[in-house]
Structures are given as C-alpha cells and as structure tokens.
Protein 1
Amino acid sequence: MKLYSAPISPFAARVRLSIYRKNLDIAIVPPPDGGLKGDAYLALNPMGQVPTLVLDDGFAIPESATILEYLEDRFPATSLRPDKAEDLARARLFLRLPDLYFLGAPRILLSVRNPGDRKPDVVASAMESLGRGLSYIDHFLDADSPWAAGGRASLGDCALIPILNAVALVERVYGRPDLIARHSKVAAYWRAAQIEPINARVIAEQMASVPKFGPPD
Ligand SMILES: N[C@@H](CCC(=O)N[C@@H](CS)C(=O)NCC(=O)O)C(=O)O
C-alpha cells in the first residue's frame, strides 16, 4: 500500500498522522513523474490532488477524510475512533469544519510568497475567515484536554494538528502571533499537542517547506 503525499499539505498530513499513530506499513511517496496533473496520477485521482491511498491491488482512494475512515475500517486495532458516539461526532466535526468553512484561508494567505504582491483586501478577508473558523473549533473543543475528542488520540487530532500548523505558519509569515492565542481552548490544545511526539513528527514534516516562505523569526 502507498500514500501519495506532499509534506506541506494539511490534507496529506492528516493521513500521515493516522499512519504513524496506527504504526501502519504504508509507503509515503511523492506524486509520480508528471506530477499531480500528469496522466499517471490523474488515472488514479482525476481531481489531481494529494493525498491518494493506493492499495496493493491498485485500487485508489482519494480524499483525506475518506482515506482516514478507510484506515479505521481496515486497521481497527489501534482505533482513532473515540469510543463514545458523541466524541466520534466531534472528531468528525473537526474534519468537516475546516473543509467547509475556512481551509481556503491559509491557502490564500500562503499562496502569495512576496509581501509586495499581497492585496490588503484579500488578506483582510482571509484573516477574518481564519479567525471565524478558529472560533468554531474553539467552540467545540474541550477545555483542559490535550486531545481533540474522547480523551485520547483520535481522528479529531489528525484533522486539527495539520491545520493549526498551517495557521502557525500564517502567524510567522504575517507577523501575527495572536491568531491562535485569541482562542483560549485552541491555544491550550495547540500548546499541549505540539509536544506530543507523533504530532511533532508531522508538524516538523510540514514545516520543512517553511524556508520557501521567507526567513523564520
Ligand atoms: N478535499 C481534498 C483536498 C486535497 C487538496 O486540496 N490537496 C491540495 C494540497 S493541500 C492539492 O493537492 N492541490 C493541488 C491542486 O489542486 O492542484 C482532501 O481532503 O484530500
């Protein structure tokens, strides 16, 4: 089995987090020659995006949330599904909220590398969307837990860690250290989550592409 992935992609990072936490023997590889829009990759995933999980018989599964659920069904031993239905609903919410409401914002903010090319109105609107999205996450997080849902590692953490890391990158690139700090439960969660070793591994992989965005502070 192999996962087509890119280090910075929060969607691919979600799945890598699950693979590491479940200790699965899945090769993590870059897109094939021709890239995401080449014939070889489009034959697997016509959307031309990472991640795609390719099974040993060649069956290809795109879409991070679908891959995460497949890995839960196929490898239930180290389950990332919380035990209580309500906690599982919350973990899934942490996948849905960014996808539906605010993941476009860091993408917009980080897509313009040169500060001189940034349009103030576009930046302001993306920052507002980001803030609103973080407030939704804050609303549903437990206070005082280093985990997203159910008191242990779950799909909710696979969702939140890569996204909060993308927000942390926005903070550095734009000199806005307040973006996460304004949301007290998100800030406490992020503080604790970053020092957990498997989370830290994925955070480091994502951050490996930081130099492209300019000098870190
Ligand atoms: N809904 C997809 C989104 C995947 C996605 O947007 N991947 C980005 C990287 S963060 C990508 O491959 N972009 C390349 C492109 O769209 O050309 C998922 O959850 O897997």
Note: The chain is about 55% helix and 5% strand.
Protein 2
Amino acid sequence: MKHLVLGFGTLVMAATMAMAHGGVKDPLVKARMDLMVEIKDSTGVLGNMLKGKIPFDAAQAEAARLALLDHAKAIPAAFEVQATDPKTEAAPAIWTDWDDFVAKSNDMVAAVEAADASSMDSLRAGMGAIGASCKACHKSYRID
Ligand code: HEC
C-alpha cells in the first residue's frame, strides 16, 4: 500500500482532505469522497495545463494521467458497500443499478487509458472524453 510510505506532502494532503470532509462520520463514505477529491486534483493538474495556468510538462501530465487511471479503477471497490452518511451525495440508485454504475466507472477507465498526455493538443482531446465520463456518472449517481 502506498499509504505505508507516507511522505510529508501526503500527510499534509491527507490532513487537508480530512478537513474538507470534517463532518463525515462514516469511514467508507469519507474514503470514497477522498478518492473523488484525488480524482478532482489529478484532473485539475491537467486542466490547469490546458488553461495555461501552469506550464505544460509531458512527464507531469503523464503522472497525473496514471494517477487518474489508478483512481478510476478504484471506484467500484470504493462504492461496493452501501455505506451512508448524512453528508453523502451518493444516490441510492448506485446499489440498485450496480452493473450500470460499474460500466460508467469502466467508461472513465477507458477514457483515461485512451488519453494521450504527450502534447497539449492530444491532451485536450482526451480531457473532453474524461470530463464527459465524470458527468455521465454524476448525472445518474451523484445528488447535488
Ligand atoms: C462511476 C461513477 C463516477 C465517476 C466516473 C466519477 N464520479 Fe465523482 N462522484 C461519484 C459519486 C457517486 C459521488 C458522491 C460520493 C458521496 O458523496 O458519497 C462523487 C463525488 C465527487 C466529488 C465530490 C467529493 C466530495 O468532496 O464529497 C468530486 C469533486 C468528484 N466526484 C469529481 C469527479 C471527477 C472530476 C470525475 C471525472 C474525472 C469523477 N468524479 C468521476 C461518482 C463518480
């Protein structure tokens, strides 16, 4: 487990995420929210490169893409148990339409696998499909 080799940066990040979800009591709900925040952070790095907020760097972009790939693959396991919490935004339909939920997380895996982070242009094309995969799942399974 990578969490056994915590560096200082990871500790700071974990502390920040704990604060963001301070009101969440259920550990499984908190873990799946933290997974989504990690997904948002990797997407944010790629998005910031595309927007020119940080310089494009192919190695950094590929690292963010690979992190996103790991996290996308971890979605079904993070949601397998129907844990709940007053703060959850997870729709109960996840567990009644489980196969579709897994299919939507596989769509995200496929979009991240297909994305090519070697140049700004290819990354831009790939990010469109990745963003669409987030939206497709949130539309059905995340309550705002
Ligand atoms: C297969 C379904 C699925 C996919 C794909 C998915 N999400 Fe989510 N996401 C959810 C669900 C369900 C929740 C609500 C979890 C909860 O509150 O228990 C959520 C919550 C979130 C949250 C809120 C976390 C918090 O602070 O509580 C963020 C941010 C987020 N997703 C970002 C993303 C981004 C960005 C992508 C795409 C790169 C993505 N998600 C892809 C299902 C998905």
Note: The pocket of heme C is lined by residues 29, 32-33, 36-37, 39-40, 43, 75, 88-90, 94, 101, 104-105, 108, 130, 133-134, 137-138, 141-142 (CB under 6 Å).
